[in-house]
User: What shape does this take?
Amino acid sequence: MAGQKLTSNLMLGAFILYLVPFVCLAVHHPVIFVPGDGGSQIEARLNKTSSPHYMCAKKSDWFDLWLNIELMMPSAISCWADNMRLMYDKETHTSHSPPGVETRVVGWGNVSSVEYIDPSQNGYSVYFHKIADRLRKLGYKSDKNLYGAPYDFRKAPNELADFFTNMKTLVEKAYGENDNTPVILICHSMGAPNMLYFLNRQKQAWKDKYIRAMVTLAGVWAGTVRAMKVFAVGDNLGAWLISTDSIKIEERSNPSLAFLMPSEKLWSEDEILVESDNVNFTVKNISEFFNGYAYPDMSFMREDTKDLVKDLKAPGVEVYCLHGASVPTTERMVYRSFPASGPNLIYGDGDGTVNMRSLVACNKWSQEQRQPVHHLVLPHIDHLAILTDSHATEAIKKVIISITGERETSEVLEDVQNEEESARRPFIPYPGLMPRIDIV
Assistant: This one.
């Protein structure tokens, strides 16, 4: 039944895959890009009295902290991690930088701030640039109707009050600067549940006036098992030079990692996520998993964040939910001896980062709101490739064309399979992959 529903949604998503190659839009709805975890630039200024290594600077003017590829090299990674980490206060349920470290997110409202993550290494840090470039070919302009909404991605929505206040102001500004034209939100990864949290707290009249649609790319609607893997062993972002032991210190300190843990809404209390010789872990006893690594702060942060979007209340705006599939994605971890041994990873379906059940959770809104919910799966497109792959970015461009009403969605429904076949991207319905084991 679930497979039939997803296949139907695959066909429904065909609206983007057969449009004329060049379209001059009659209306340019302003677009605001909302990044995901790691998608904003962060600067730091130091006035420290101590450091983890004699080579680490203690005092500095403002400098690029994230992303700064040079600081990720083996000789500097411990300095970077100490400056990037957060400290959790269980009394106030908030996080803050270590003493002597001041940080700020740069480029508010400016689309260039989310096109590239490392301002000094554009070629190696492309984020929203290729999508923005597609839109420029439709007549969009950076200084007129393309905006960026960066935020401190280390934090979860409960600590982003200023961001949400500024977000509402930016939406209204974009609307006013473009002849009172409603806004399109394009969100990636964690940016999607963050915007769900934001929209759930706005009045329907405001959403009807200011928001034309929300386009979500690889939305982490209900968490992901990979967050548990990142907590356990770290994530070196695919760069073998980066020490996972060094970077996991910073990653474990982020409330956003707690926010991205598997949701009790979609993972049952008896479904084993971590298996070991002496104890198994599910969403019910996940705090014991954190405590096993002697990091109880994650348990507190998880309690702070687990219910923020747990119910997945419909956003009350038109939604275009796009994501990849058929990419091996961490489904479960198996330890010979917890936590001493590294885990073996068992894979299932997803986009390489987010499990399929979380990616498709947006479908529930089609029965819960009057605004349309469109769902499109792009087979073999992984979590980050959805931002850069030529097939995916062309699809996103055509979503924008569809939103403007330049061509009816129904006109192109039957063309999706032909397009996929010509691109040699076979349909693989969910679950679509046999579980496989990898060793970390």
